[in-house]
């Protein structure tokens, strides 16, 4: 089969995001290469990170093979190719022959039976399912992940929470000092136990970060499904995979979100751009952050830590009114790149809460 070199390099970069080169199991430095008709897929598994993902590309011609090849060798080779198309062919020794122009390479492989079996996602145990666009997922997930602390392994503070209610899904992230919280866009369904009011699934912020860095420029449909132990995702035309959930309870943060207060309109994209850098400062030793809304129409964000230093950001905002719920600001859908939202902010002790509604 023949595959575009450009698409093969993109496939290689996506697979590399989820490969753990420091794994104690040598077999996990390999990936499963499968050709089925005109589709080539590569599966990688990281038991330490709790991920099992598969990415695929469409080619020309037809292939029919499944073998296990060392990923580092594949990444290095593909990154050096200069021709427009690459030919892939499986050999009887589980190896793959790659042809690029006048060059020909053979990557040694193993039998697929040597690779770990994929985690089984039982559809009868689904607790919640969401249908959305990928770019909507990226915006909300990155916003929530900005407030987490990935170093707090196996704690709710290292995870992004997807909170399924009766008719909506909220997404949240916190490191114990700040909370980022918003309504997750899309269509949602939940199946809950009779005694449950809602269901919360926690995905590692590190896994979320990788899933938002796939280099996807268009906006494909995406499905996100949860059961008790796993989150399963699929991005149409790109790939699919599972993440083991972080096994931790999640705090009830309703008490820090204001019922009344002042409401300000502010472009949400600039806020997302500055929260990450400010968070780095605030998470240092002796760190803290503050938010001050001035009457002159500016939102001032400040972060300080004894170990690192300080940082400031000033964003223009518009004071709308004194707020009593519910209120939602609906921006012009034609201006998606510069959409605005409503931010409610309040500081209580060490906790600062943001809530953006689109």
Can you describe what's shown?
This protein has 358 residues and is α+β, with helices and mostly antiparallel strands. The chain is 16% helix and 45% strand. The strands form 4 sheets. Strands 2, 3, 7, 8, 12, 14, 15 and 16 form an 8-stranded antiparallel β-sheet that branches. It has an 8-stranded mixed β-sheet with strand order 13-9-10-11-23-22-17-21. The longest helix has 15 residues, at 268-282. The protein is elongated, with a radius of gyration of 23 Å. It starts with a strand and ends with a strand.
General form? elongated
Largest sheet: 8 strands, antiparallel
Helix content: 10-25%
Task: Give the termini separation.
Answer: 45 Å
| Percent in strands | over 45%
Structure summary, number of beta strands: 23
Secondary-structure element pattern, one letter each: EHEEHEEEEEHEEEEEHEEEEHEEEEEE
Radius of gyration: 23 Å
Low-confidence stretches: 322-358
Number of helices: 5
Mean pLDDT, all residues: 79
Instruction: Report the structural category.
Output: alpha+beta
């Amino acid at each position: 089969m023949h595959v575009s070199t450009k698409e093969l390099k993109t496939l290689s970069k996506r697979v590399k995001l989820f490969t753990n080169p420091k794994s104690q199991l040598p077999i996990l430095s390999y990936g499963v290469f499968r050709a089925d008709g005109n589709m080539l897929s590569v599966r990688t598994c990281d038991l330490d990170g709790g991920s099992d993902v598969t990415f695929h590309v469409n080619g020309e011609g037809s292939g029919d093979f499944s073998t296990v090849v060392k990923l580092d060798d594949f990444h290095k080779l593909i990154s050096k190719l200069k021709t427009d198309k690459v030919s892939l062919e499986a050999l009887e020794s589980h190896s793959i022959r790659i042809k690029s122009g006048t060059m020909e390479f053979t990557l040694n492989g193993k039998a697929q039976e040597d690779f770990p079996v994929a985690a089984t996602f039982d559809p009868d145990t689904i607790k919640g399912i969401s249908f959305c666009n990928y770019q909507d997922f990226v915006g909300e997930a990155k916003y929530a992940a900005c407030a987490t602390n990935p170093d707090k392994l196996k704690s709710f503070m290292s995870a992004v929470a997807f909170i399924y209610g009766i008719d909506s899904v909220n997404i949240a992230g916190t490191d114990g000092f700040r909370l980022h919280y918003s309504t997750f866009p899309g269509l949602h369904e939940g199946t809950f136990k009779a005694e449950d009011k809602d269901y919360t699934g926690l995905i590692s912020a590190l896994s979320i970060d990788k899933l938002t860095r796939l280099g996807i420029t268009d906006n494909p449909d995406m499905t996100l499904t949860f059961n008790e132990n796993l989150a399963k995702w699929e991005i149409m035309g790109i790939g699919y995979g599972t993440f083991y959930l972080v096994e931790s309870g999640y705090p009830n943060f309703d008490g820090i979100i204001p019922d009344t207060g002042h409401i300000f309109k502010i472009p949400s994209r600039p806020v997302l751009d500055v929260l990450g850098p400010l968070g780095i400062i605030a998470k240092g030793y002796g760190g803290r952050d503050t938010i001050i809304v001035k009457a002159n129409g500016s939102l001032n964000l400040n972060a300080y830590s004894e170990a690192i230093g300080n940082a400031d950001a000033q964003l223009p905002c518009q004071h709308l009114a004194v707020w009593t719920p519910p209120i939602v600001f609906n921006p012009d859908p034609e201006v998606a790149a510069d959409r605005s939202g409503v931010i409610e902010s309040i500081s209580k002790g060490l906790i600062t809460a943001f809530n953006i509604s689109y």
